[in-house]
Specification:
homotetramer; alpha+beta; 4 helices; 20 strands
Chain lengths: 298, 298, 298, 298
């Protein structure tokens, strides 16, 4: 297993970033990530100093995957996401966006430190939430454009989809030689929508096995769990992202599993599910259980 | 128990519709509803004749609730939703809206008849989906405006939220004397988003107990299951409905359960969930488990 | 010329409203309208009492047009819009919607009374704006649904399009016998977007000639000036309304003027214009100069 | 006057692009640009070969402005925009986005070559449109992220605002040393919304004088003509961009001209105007006549 300890951090998912580690397809990597706050919030009372660190979502990597080329797909199997310092933090600075209209404008500075222990994340001394770790931001460098780590897009990025979690495999389009995989922005817990703009953010150690699917091209990120397949789309208005994500799912069901697309449309209408990433940028995943896909393909 | 067999159907949720049944608060009612196709699709090959029946979602009722006045809330506890003729139907006429951009334009006429038996709805001879009945359209007549049964709004209407199901209680604002509760548009199964525009639509028999909460005013529909509370909001863009539904939920948590609103915002960020109604009109429900609400209120 | 002095006012555009006046096609009518504030703001310091008058945009009429039937079109030629009491008023109560995010939340109560004289409306003692009167809300009663006077839709309604002005002809779909034309909500001046939610609102006297186009069906409102044709669409997101309004315009150019639709699309790309109604509900008009339409049809 | 003939073209607005020309503030530059099609459409029958040239909107430059630093503003006064080869071209490849829902899916390949002469652009042998040249894409390189030339944002980019025209001054935020001004994508004519996705696209020669405003920071692009000031905002839904652009305009009126913001809000409500860029990405400019601004400031 290869190791990549915390090193230089990047605020763009960019082909200009030099690889920090080179692997062969099929290798397992253990990589350390910093939290979205650049580590500036470690105890109650800490504040983000935006003058010092204007950007969030620092990325570890990039990882060079030998043999990867434009048109391939990376299959990132996430084995484990560990809370690197045993805690997570929340800050509501961004909540003003979209919520002030409904909740009022006096959103407090409300830094919260949540210990992670016993499979729980302690939102308060009384309230233990299930520890459901996830990677908020992940993607391969595009060949045109270098997005910052704030938006999401066809390349992945700041999707904040909670199904990017341990046990699942994330499929990402490859655009440049070596793929240049970036990741960071781990969460200890997050609901649908990442309502206030940041979740329970944590420095993490991520263990993952990275495979390369040669000459298999996908338009946008996909996820596979033991039971489900999922497709991710981003953009406003969100209702359009819902339609796009489901359409991607239906086309996947047709191509790989043999479910005719109009049957797939009907089936997703009946048993499809939506998982919502950061609501403000309209990221969603469309999901369906594999048992229905297999049954419909018969 | 009072009974209301299928009678005159309405295509508006309107104070101009005369009551079909009068009940006292606390009474249980058994009411028959027609499907969204006005019963025009009963077997493979049947087609909607829009010249004959231009509107969908016919409503049964309205039910007059004694003592109900503007500013009250109706609590509709749904006991049971039965498939009245043992089958449901799907039609993809509306799928063009929003999906043609992604899936192509040649969406077929694809009428599907799905038998309901043994707790399943048979989408095809090979594919049995769980029978998860729900009421797509429900609401009390507004005091200004008479919406058709296509949109949804603060009054309820065509929400297509799958949590409007048996075992749950739906709370609806009352605007006029007697409340004038309308309902219809039952589904045997529906996923998030009601992707193609109609689900597995069925004529149903709905058994429900209707309570009246005097002088308790709510801004929009709410739902309560044994484990969760939920709030429903509608409108485009959907990302705004997500923010509005969550904000309603947070204010409900504050008022009734004593969770300070900014704590509620943080909690919904970590464990809130979104259920998507008909995606094209941006209806969503925001949900949270009661165990978290109670714990956070301590 | 027939006269309709101010009488009972309506807050819905509804087939349930009894006609206040009956005319024959081709007749000229002089009709008095109240302002959107129900006349509650006549001098500085006046406030809207929402408890007394919860709704805005009171409508005069409805006018029964003899012979009008579903599927016809009403052609309303607006001759003159006069400021009935020589002044207009503005109030920024609704500005919070959408603007607080950018401008801050402390939007003041800021009632403004603007005298109308010498072809100007005096926004302040120093600032005279051109008097450009318009009718904010106009439409024929739908056959299904009775919208309040807040939204807009295919029937017209609260479009707030400044081209609904003197000298222009507005075309409106007829849905019920007699057409039942409602109108009100006149403005002395309004820019694109009706940014703060109300413009310079005035009680008005509207002189108009109403023609009936038998068996000519239009999907949504249209406007014709001496030089331009225009089509109106409503809905969020606004970018979709822009596409819909232009598409209506292109189809009109094809049907009536003989410009093939793909040429029309190209032409609207080059010289089409957009006029924005109330931005929050996404109402826009797409416009093109007739000289281009005629030239392209050759 | 400095000259920059057509040279290497860029498809990102990026700090990684090496300067092609260095100037001192106040200098006039004559720069050649290629059209959005990379010059692949020069005569009827030419087609875009997306395999060869996958990206559009090639950029000339970047221009290094001596002394420019993050936090400054570039004032680009556009003197002249000439049609470099005496013609423009249109192609409707992108029209499918958003329009197929309304116009049908069979949008033709419809390449059109339009000669530019006598102050007109000849859309067809019979239809002469006014030659109203504009620069579709312009901006300084951001310090984080390298956007492609498809989107627009706070840095400028593919705004497609027709007021970026000769005689006007465009103000652009500076993010990196030297500013690194990119531009391209000139149009001979374009209406509101750039409906089909490309306008009358032309290779151009742009003459402009570039000034540097030290330590004057603006959040997003601004434009000034002899009579008007304008602010540009981008994003979906477009109704939010309208609110953001107007809010920028109101804050500009307050800061530079002394109009209190709530007066500015009222004034923009009455006489503000919206110009629509590429509708699909929600770019708009909010405008107001300087005569009103000056009068309101008294």
């Amino acid at each position: 297993m290869k190791e990549l300890p915390l090193g230089k951090l990047y605020y763009e998912i960019s082909r200009h970033n030099p690889p920090a580690l080179s692997i062969r397809p099929g290798e397992t990597v253990r990589i350390e990530t910093e939290d979205t706050f650049n580590g500036l919030i470690r105890k109650e009372g800490d504040r983000r100093d935006l003058a010092k660190k204007p950007q969030g979502n620092p990325q570890s990597g990039p990882i060079w995957v030998e043999g990867a080329e434009k048109g391939d797909t990376l299959a990132v199997h996430i084995e484990k996401i560990e809370a690197r310092i045993g805690q997570a933090a929340n800050d509501m600075t961004w909540a003003r966006r979209g919520l002030a209209e409904f909740l009022g404008h006096d959103i407090p500075v409300n830094t919260r430190i949540a210990p992670v222990r016993d499979g729980k994340v302690w939102w308060s001394p009384n309230v233990a939430l299930p520890y459901r770790p996830m990677i908020g931001t992940i993607g391969c460098a595009p060949d045109f454009g270098s997005p910052t780590t704030s938006p999401a897009g066809d390349y992945g990025g700041n999707m904040d989809i909670k199904e990017v979690t341990d046990g699942n495999t994330v499929y990402l389009p490859v655009y440049v030689e070596g793929a240049l995989l970036h990741l960071g922005d781990a969460h200890a817990a997050q609901g649908d929508g990442e309502l206030c703009g940041t979740a329970l953010e944590m420095p993490a150690t991520v263990t993952m096995t990275i495979d390369l699917l040669k000459a298999q091209t996908i338009p946008r990120p996909r996820i596979r769990s033991r039971d489900e397949i999922m497709t991710v789309a981003t953009g406003r208005p969100m209702e359009r992202s819902v339609a796009q994500a489901y359409s991607d799912l239906i086309l996947w069901m047709e191509e790989e599993f043999g479910v005719p697309r109009w049957d797939g449309l009907s089936l997703c209408t009946m048993v499809g599910e939506i998982s919502v990433g950061y609501h403000f940028i309209g990221t969603v995943a469309a999901k369906i259980k594999l048992e229905y896909v297999h049954a419909a393909a018969r």
